[in-house]
Amino acid sequence: MxxxxxxxxxxxxxxxxxAVVGLxxxxxxxxxxxxxxxxxxxxxxxxxxxLVLAYVGGRxxxxxxGLADLTCFGGLALMGGNxxxxxxxxxxxxxxxxxxxxxxxxxxxxALLIGTFLPFVIGVAVAYAxxxxxxVSLTTIGAxxxxxxxxxxxxxxxxASSEVITLxxxxxxxxxxxxxxxxxxxxxxxxxxxxxxxxVFGGLAGTVSGVSxxxxxxxxxxxxxxxxxxxxxxxxxxxxxxxxxxxxIRALFPAHA
Length: 257
What we know:
By secondary structure, the protein is mostly helical. The protein has 13 helices and no strands.
């Protein structure tokens, strides 16, 4: 029976991967409702559980892909791979209506630019403080501070090492969790009560998952407006980080480019 189940898991790896993720999300939602009474969004808890499971899988196998290193969970590598990631980005972009995007106005565009450049600069500064001096690593880690998707896309495009790309993803995930958890706490201070304020917040925060979960815990009606502007961060970051911003960093650090 055990061998039969293992064979089914291997042959239907992607299906099992979706089932595992679904169970984690279901469990996270229950924890959010019953243990934190909605103060911490289920998506934030799901990310933390995912990181724990990845750590456990890595410790058990000594590998580098978390649970995906276990044969029966190999489908997680495909589910979390580049193909489905890029498909999700394209699918999200197709849902954005130009007429709705124009409602953000110039203030949304300004917030979007600030929310893209400022995290990049902070990420580069942190990387420099920890001893990174080459333009590729600095750019990749800075891109990770924009979002956890822009980091690996940028790193792959400019030839960063897998270790640096992993750091970029970690920074982006930390940012997303931070936005998820702190948004409901600081909503009053930030005056998050109108669609316009949600658009500005989405532009400044920049992480779609963090903004969506944070606004959902604050006021569900604000989620589409915040996510609308935050969605553009991925495309803008993927456009600017491996090109213009990389050239700027190379000019600033020519000896280590």
